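Fold it.
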Amino acid sequence: MEREVIIVAGGSGKRMAGNIPKQFIEVNGKPILMHTMACFHDFDSRIKQILVLPTNQIEYWKTLCTTHHFTIEHKIAEGGDERFFSVQNGLKISNPKALIAIHDAVRPCVDKNVIHACYLAAELYAAAIPTLPLNDSIRELTDNGNKMADRSRFCIVQTPQVFQGELLHRAYTQPYSTHFTDDASVVEATGVSIKLVQGNRENIKITTPIDLKLAALLLP
């Protein structure tokens, strides 16, 4: 099946204590977003890439592409007020017959093997996401305080989250809900089971200055 990826870039960078949206912060000489898009291009140069950006950032992105001589082919969709609506807009220019990945713009260290595993599992099982086991102990907050929780019953969720296109398009016709925390939760609300695959520890979501320092060590 044809492969596509919708890269969602809606971050403002507030937790970076800076004025530049975090997806545009340079790491090792180029914006984080360019590193992220290169992950998918290097995995398979035939993948159709759709970038979702806030409307007021599109021209700045085009300027960055010129400045950095960035030539990976992609289409641009306008972002929405919530991630749900941003993905909806990206789907409008996607192919429902394809396998469609949704990926965070600020996850530039995803491993090629993880990308491959997610696409393969989605082709076989319709919906697949990368996850990691919890290393830390966790506690559950309750009305009376908190209590120990069994970490073996939980996992950390990453992206890319990959789905068969017709299923994903159908899921995103649902009304928006605050319970939709990621694309898997949107698809799961239609009654579809989600296949879990092994993620990679380096696939961090860059959110804080510490994440930025780690990314500089991991990226070329």
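Helices lie at 32-43, 58-67, 83-91, 112-125, 165-171, 183-188, 209-218.
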